[in-house]
Specification:
This protein is an alpha+beta fold. A hairpin with a 6-residue loop joins strand 2 and strand 3. It starts with 8 loop residues before the first helix and ends with a helix. Helix content is 38%, strand content 15%. It has a three-stranded antiparallel sheet.
Length: 79
């Protein structure tokens, strides 16, 4: 049997805040649950699971997609 990682709402919030966004949800059950989050760049509220957040997917607007692509390109192309 594999080990199941369990996260607290505080840990989830910290991860989201490190990316600049704000967690609006007040409860957390599991990493597949959709969470309410506010994007710091476009100001829109969006839903995303913690599973997808851990993979680097945040706001579904173009603003976050561009940031995700830029971050990956920066990591793959050291200066």
């Amino acid at each position: 049997m594999g080990t199941t990682l369990r996260f607290t709402i505080e840990q989830v919030g910290e991860t989201i805040e490190k990316a600049g966004d704000k967690l609006l949800s007040t409860t957390y059950q599991n990493y597949r649950q959709k969470l309410n989050i506010k994007c710091h760049k476009c100001g829109d509220e969006y839903e995303q699971s913690y599973q997808m957040i851990l993979k680097g997917y945040f706001c579904t607007k173009t603003c976050r997609s561009e940031n995700y692509l830029n971050r990956n390109n920066d990591n793959n192309n050291p200066r």
